[in-house]
Amino acid sequence: GSEKVHGIHFPNMPIHCASFLGDTGSVVVSGRRSFFYIYDAVAGKIDKIPRIQGRKEKSLEKFTTSPDGSLIAFIGNDGYVIVVETKSKMWVADLKMNGSARAVSFSPCGDFISASGSDGDVYRWDLRTKKCVDRFKNEDGTISSYVSATSKFLAVGAESGVVNIYNDRSRPFQKRSPVKSIMNMHTSVDYMKFNPDGDILAMSSRREKDSLKLVHVPTQTVFSNWPTSKTPLGYVWSLDFSPGSKFMAIGNDKGKCLLYKLPHYES
Hints:
Elements (H helix, E strand, L loop, with lengths): L14 E6 L5 E6 L4 E5 L4 E5 L13 E3 L5 E5 L4 E6 L4 E7 L4 E6 L5 E6 L3 E6 L4 E7 L6 E6 L3 E6 L4 E5 L12 E3 L8 E4 L5 E5 L7 E5 L4 E2 L13 E6 L5 E6 L4 E5 L6
Antiparallel strand pairs: 1-2, 2-3, 3-4, 5-6, 6-7, 7-8, 9-10, 10-11, 11-12, 13-14, 14-15, 15-16, 17-18, 18-19, 19-20, 21-22, 22-23
């Protein structure tokens, strides 16, 4: 079995979200609290960040981190995405959208943030200028629940269960149609993840048992051979790919982490 490296207790923090900060060896942890923690696994030290300057959020339970771990983007109240610098632990930007923010994703280069939410529009900001550089209506029209980006595509998942894949090189502020709409999910898209080379998009919902689909992005087709109705996934709460995409890990409601081999990436 695997050896446990550390066990850390974060005081007064029922954990809702946790993520490594790039390859820095640090971890950011948050929940339904106005504060959050950064744990430096190398030094073995826990830092409590009491609140984000100038913000009144009572909960910081949803965030995403930039690929290099230098920035954390929290989903705030009233359509705000709050960007915090990891090193200084200081606020750097408030990015504002209409409607409430529900989903946020960094671009692979780390220079852009895409977000969407209750108004069904997709926004993109350039973090170097803090300006909104693109906005378009997601064709589905319902509340957006998750966004995920590669260097070529942006996937937008909605509460309807529809996932739209957009070409990321479209002209900004123009109406656009997805290159593909995936209609295989029947409940809200709660999680999406591209594998490291961007060829597979995994999507799942917590609201329906065994609700996980994999899309082969180059051919825009849903894998029909896996998972099948016999794959014992349970309610999928989280998922990730290994760096070389040989393995896929799926966390479920039973507290199990299921590890699957992806034969496509054996070589």
